[in-house]
Amino acid sequence: MSLYAHSGTWPSGSYILAVTLMKSFAIGLLGFGNVNQTLVELLQRKDTDLRERYRIEWRVTGVASRRIGWQVNAAGYDVVDLLRARSSDAFASDAFARMRGQEHPTYNAWLDAAQPDVVFEATSLNVETGQPAIDHIRAVLEHGAHAITANKGPVVHAYEELRELAARRGKQFLFESTVMDGIPIFSLFRNTLPAIDVKGFKGILNSTTNVILTGMERGLSFDESLGQAQQLGIAETDASHDIDGWDAAVKVSALVNVIMGVRLPPQKVDRAGIRGLAGETVRSARNAGAPYKLICRAQRTESGVSASVRPEQIPLTDPMALVDGTSSIIQFETDIFPGLTITEENPGLYATAYGMLADFIRAIGS
Q: Which of the residue ranges 45-49, 237-241, 360-364 would you say has the lowest mean pLDDT?
C-alpha cells in the first residue's frame, strides 16, 4: 500500500497535508488468450484513471495457460512484455522468454507463489460440466482471492456453491462478461434494481448466428455465410455450439440461475439451432417482413421457469428484427417495468475485457 501526499493552503495561508492511501493488488491471469490479453491492454490504458480516481495500483504476478504452464513473477511482469505476447509468434519470441517467470507444477502451487488478490479466469467453456473452471474458481476463493470470470460454465453449473463460498470467505465471485460482454446485466439487478421481480425475458444473445443469418439475408448460402463469419474471426472453426443453440442456451441458463433465482441447467432449455434454415427460406422471411432470429426466451411459471432457444420469425415492428451483425438485445419483463430493454451494438473484445475490469473495481471496493 502506497502513500500519496498532497499539499495546499487555506485562505488564511496555513498549509495542510492530505495523505491518500493507494491500494496495491496482485493479479493472476488464468488463461492467456484474446480475452485476458485484451484485459491487460485495457488495464494499461486505464491505469491513470485507476490510480487517480480509484487509488488502485496493480501488477500481474501470475500467468497461466495450457500453452505456457503455470508461470509466476512475484515482483510483477513487465506489462510491455505481456502486451507483446499478443502477436502470433510471441510464444517463440524474446518477449515470451522474459515473461515466463518461474514455472510451477500445479494450480495450487501457482496460487501459493503468485499470491493474487484477484484472479481473472478466462479459460474455454465446457458446456456439459463447467470443468475445470469450477475447480479453478473454487480454489481461488479458498485461497482468499476474488474470482472474476468470463466463462459461463461455473455460473450455470455451480453458481449457488461458488456464491456461498465467496460469501463465507468474504470475497467476490463476479461474471459480468459472460452474457452480452461487458453490458451491466447482472450488476444492474444486483446493485441498481433491488427488490425487483423478474418474470421473464427474451432476446438475441448469440452474435455468431446473428451474423450468419444476416449474411444469408444478403444472398449467401448457410455454408458461405458461416465461412465468411469464420474468416472474420466471429465464428470458431467448429461453430457447432453457436449453430446448434448451445451457446445461447448456456446464456439463458446463466440469466435464469442468477437473475430469476431458479436452478436451470442448460440441458433443460428447449433448444433448436439455425442449422436447418436454408438461404432462400431466410431471404423470403426477410422480404415478407418477418425475418428469422435465434430468440432466447424464459418465463416464470407455477412450477419454475420454462426456457427456450429457437429460430423464430419476428415482425419488423419488433426492435429485435432490426438487430443484425454482432449486436445483441435483451428485454426483461418485471413486476415494475413491463419492458426493460438493453441493446448492445457491434461489440468487440474491449467490451468483454471491460466487463472484467468493471468487476475488478466492484470486487476490490466491496
A: 237-241
For residue 307, how many C-alpha atoms fall within 13 Å in the half-sphere facing its CB?
29
| C-alpha separations of 111 from 25, 136, 140, 183 in Å | 14, 10, 8, 30
What element of type H or E holds 287? helix 279-287
Distances in Å between the alpha carbon of 345 and those of 212, 219, 248, 341?
Answer: 16, 23, 18, 13
In the structure grid, which three cell numbers stand for residue 57, read together? 495500483
User: Pick from 29, 57, 67, 56: which is nearest to 145 by CA?
Assistant: 29
**For 342-366, b where at least 16 C-beta lie within 10 A, e where not — what string?**
bbbeebebbbbbbbbbbbbebbbee
pTM to 2 decimal places: 0.90
Rounded Cα gap, residues 69 and 121, in angstroms: 15
pLDDT, tens digit, 9 for 90 and up, residues 264-289: 999 999 999 999 999 999 999 999 99
